[in-house]
């Protein structure tokens, strides 16, 4: 009897996933159950699909204790990406289910998105484009990025990739991270500083941290009030690291110039006043959504899941 693997990802990934993940798994003799939706599946729908599968490659769906309890044959869950905050790792460990991820493979895609966002914010590109589409010929003054202060909160794979690709912009880069890579900092002329300094002095703040007890609401009312009036906040990390109510109030009160968000507490953020605000660039969690990153992650996630099912060690495990 062939082993079963469940895959739940978004419709935009279908072409690459069918070619680079589903077909190779089927060639290896696996039965593949794949579900493509625009938004994360509900707990009930996951339970319906996961009952007798051996491996699960998951996107943004929440792999809860209830989901894990319904999967009697499950041996491994692989996050199609890096952050495993949507997986109940404690319950997985209790059921001897290995939790794996795909670190570093989407870093360039996310960093490039941040670079694009910086230019959009500095020159009002999306705002003015929307006005043009409404037949309004409205201009505005922007700001050059060269020489501005960029504060990076979280210098992991994505943060480091961002540092590398902005080298030609001559930005003054400050970084905050609990774990300091002094060799990298010296090579790229970075300054490790306290979080408070980044908040107070940066023209652009870019978040690259996981969501956990320590980082939830890391940027909230006090931090937003401490930012420069002409500063921009960029979150391509996880919903919840920024307090969305406080951010909306800060933008409405002109405490900061604007924000760009690629992650929200609730996804999709239906009815969100923050999403609809003209000083906010809102994106549907597309940081890793490039053909190149998707192909790299597809191959890596396949190896993670196959390795565990076949009794080998995964390429990357999260505990």
From TrEMBL:
Residue ranges of every copy of the D-isomer specific 2-hydroxyacid dehydrogenase NAD-binding domain listed in the record: 116-287
Oxidoreductase listed as a keyword: yes
Domain D-isomer specific 2-hydroxyacid dehydrogenase catalytic span(s) in chain numbering: 17-318
GO biological process per UniProt: amino acid biosynthetic process
UniProt keyword terms in alphabetical order: Amino-acid biosynthesis, NAD, Oxidoreductase
Coiled-coil residues: none
Database matches in PROSITE patterns: D_2_HYDROXYACID_DH_1 (PS00065), D_2_HYDROXYACID_DH_2 (PS00670), D_2_HYDROXYACID_DH_3 (PS00671)
SUPFAM superfamilies documented for this protein: Formate/glycerate dehydrogenase catalytic domain-like, NAD(P)-binding Rossmann-fold domains
A Pfam family it matches: 2-Hacid_dh_C
GO molecular function: NAD binding; oxidoreductase activity, acting on the CH-OH group of donors, NAD or NADP as acceptor
Annotated family: Belongs to the D-isomer specific 2-hydroxyacid dehydrogenase family.
Protein name: Hydroxyacid dehydrogenase
Upper classification of the organism: Bacteria, Bacillati, Bacillota, Clostridia, Halanaerobiales
């Amino acid at each position: 009897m062939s082993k079963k693997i469940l895959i739940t990802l978004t419709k935009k990934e279908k072409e690459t996933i069918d070619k680079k993940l589903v077909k190779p798994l089927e060639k290896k003799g696996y039965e593949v159950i794949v579900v493509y939706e625009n938004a994360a599946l509900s707990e009930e729908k996951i339970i319906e699909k996961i009952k007798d599968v051996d491996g699960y490659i998951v996107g943004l769906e929440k792999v809860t204790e209830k989901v894990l309890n319904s999967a009697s044959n499950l041996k491994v869950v692989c996050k199609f990406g890096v952050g495993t905050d949507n997986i109940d790792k404690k319950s997985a460990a209790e059921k001897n289910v290995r939790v794996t991820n795909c670190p570093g493979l989407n870093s360039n895609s996310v960093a490039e998105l941040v670079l694009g966002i910086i230019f959009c914010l500095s020159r009002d590109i999306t705002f003015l484009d929307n006005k043009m589409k409404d037949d309004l010929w409205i201009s505005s003054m922007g700001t050059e990025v060269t020489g501005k202060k960029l504060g990076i909160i979280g210098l992991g794979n994505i943060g480091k990739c961002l540092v590398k690709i902005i080298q030609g912009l001559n930005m003054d880069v400050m970084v905050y991270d609990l774990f300091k890579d002094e060799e990298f900092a010296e090579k790229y002329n970075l300054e490790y500083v306290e979080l408070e300094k980044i908040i107070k002095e940066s023209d652009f703040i870019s978040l690259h941290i996981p969501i956990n007890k320590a980082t939830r609401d890391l940027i909230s009312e006090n931090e937003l009030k401490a930012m420069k009036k002409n500063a921009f906040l960029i979150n391509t990390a996880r919903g919840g690291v920024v307090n969305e109510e406080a951010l909306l109030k800060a933008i409405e009160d002109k405490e900061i110039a604007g924000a760009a968000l690629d992650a929200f507490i609730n996804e999709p953020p239906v009815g969100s006043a923050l999403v609809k605000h003209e000083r906010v660039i809102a994106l549907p969690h597309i940081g890793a959504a490039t053909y190149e990153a998707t192909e790299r992650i597809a191959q890596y996630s396949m190896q993670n899941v196959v390795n565990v099912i076949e009794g080998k060690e995964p390429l990357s495990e999260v505990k």
